[in-house]
Amino acid sequence: MEQQQYAQTRPRVLVVDDDPTVAEVVSGYLDRAGYLVDRAADGPEALARAAAHRPDLVVLDLMLPGMDGLEVCRRMRGRGPVPVIMLTARGDEDDRILGLEVGADDYVTKPFSPRELVLRVESVLRRSRPAQQSEALRAAGLSLDPQARRAVKNGTELALTIREFDLLAFFLRHPGRVFGREDLMREVWGWDFGDLSTVTVHVRRLRGKVEDDPARPRLIQTVWGVGYRFEDTAESGVRP
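Given the sequence above, the corresponding structure tokens read:
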């Protein structure tokens, strides 16, 4: 009974990779780190396992036979929010950006250190948990409830990924301040290093969900050569 209760409290991670060696190594490291691990070798199996036992996080290879990781990610996220870390063997930046565009929260490029991947998993899961005693955030028609991880714009709930939610919450907590991509990587992602295009893609995706006209953003403004600033009075056009 105690073992069953312990298993139920362990975060469940679904590892999807058609390379049995990679899947075994990654699963072993995650198991030793305290996670309950499921494995799948292709897209249909991954979707079936996710439907049977909803994972707390998915480690998803981009290159899968039959159905690639991008389509698997789209279908999983179509069923509801789930954190995804994408694995890619390619060095092409376009592939990494595509993964982020379909809703991946992070990515790791092969070859990678399994220990680094475990740290990435811990980071994403830590930020996906409800905030403790955090007040609601409101500005420019937006309302965020950090405890429920729920975001609303003008009465309509927004479908945000974990990183998109965290990024918007950070902007709302620091209106009018300019942050470089390095600052956002450190404060929102919790990393002192990483591919800064990750920040760029997430800002673009977030604008597509919170701006009335993403091509002419008024809330999340670009400060050329510096970074980004959230303007909480953008709708009225009046500064405090």
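The longest helix spans residues 114-128. Try to locate this feature in the token string yourself.
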